[in-house]
Write a structure and sequence with these properties.
Radius of gyration: 20 Å
Oligomer: single chain
Number of helices: 2
Structural class: mainly beta
Largest sheet: 10 strands, mixed
Strand content: 35-45%
Order of helices and strands: EEEEHHEEEEEEEEEEEEEEEEEEEEEEEE
Helix content: under 10%
Length: about 270
């Protein structure tokens, strides 16, 4: 069963469902939310991969744009973040970035609270704020004007510009797009309970990452509600919202609202 917003009662529509094109009949309209059923005349069609870098991120909104060159999927960069930081750090202008420790570069206009821990390698870009008791372990790029809040932990991540992880978040082996925001207590779970390789499934495709640790990929402007868990390999499309206290697995399409696994509705634009 599929939930779609913005249709009229008994209106026939066409949509892509699990990699197929379906002729469907809409019914039970209530407050612009329609339950779709009676799928007929299925046929295979091509569709965009919602997990591709170009569908998730504006690469002009990160100092790490060249890290993504030649890659199709964002998790392909996870093994390269540390080496990339060390190479890029040596090229950063000394008049703009302090170099307080081996492998650490911090923009002079960034605001780093005294109790924050910053491990190497790490780059913290212009205007970023790292608050009390933040724990930046290693391999972290913190974008321009980003906020890393109290008791937030980062490990092997790229935070694009203006990302906010402001309260009690864990973000590991993850990429967060421009202006993505994680509510208080929300985390990215990056290891399966059986410690097996992470698979990422979307309609019409299954991606074998070859990695035991993959957190979440959040598209630009993604909003994650408080105390939500993003399970290993979760991908949240651009401009999508996740309800508080959600347990999310798989791929959430762009411009969607995730209420629970059976109720993912399209935003009315």
């Amino acid at each position: 069963m599929i939930v779609v917003e913005g249709l009229k009662n008994q209106e026939s529509v066409s949509l892509i469902d699990n990699g197929h094109e379906a002729g469907v009949t809409a019914y039970s309209a209530f407050k612009n939310v329609i339950i779709i059923s009676n799928i007929q005349n299925l046929k295979r069609v091509e569709r965009k991969k919602m997990t591709e870098i170009k569908e998730l991120f504006d690469l002009e909104k990160t100092i790490a744009a060249s890290l993504f060159e030649g890659k199709i999927y964002p998790w392909e960069v996870l093994d390269e973040i540390g080496d990339f930081i060390l190479k890029l750090g040596e090229e950063l202008p000394e008049e703009e970035y302090d170099h307080p420790a081996e492998g650490v570069w911090i923009a002079k206009d960034a605001n780093i609270f005294p109790s924050a821990y910053i491990g190497a390698p790490c780059i913290i870009d212009h205007g970023a704020e790292v608050r009390h008791c933040a724990f930046i372990r290693e391999n972290a790029i913190v974008g321009k004007n980003a906020v890393v809040g109290n008791s937030t932990e980062l490990k092997n991540v790229v935070l694009f510009d203006n990302v906010q992880v402001p309260h009690y978040n864990y973000v590991g082996d993850s990429i967060l797009g421009y202006k993505a925001h994680m509510g208080a207590g929300s985390i990215t779970s990056n290891v399966k309970s059986d410690s097996g390789d992470v698979l990422i499934r979307e309609p019409g495709a299954e991606h074998v990452t070859g990695r035991m640790k993959v957190g979440a990929m959040l598209g630009d402007f993604a909003e994650i509600g408080c105390n939500s868990v993003l399970n290993p390999g979760t991908v949240i499309g651009k401009h999508s919202n996740v309800y508080p206290t959600s347990c999310v697995r798989g791929v959430v399409p762009p411009y969607s609202i995730y209420k629970d696994k059976d109720h993912i509705v399209r935003k009315v634009l």
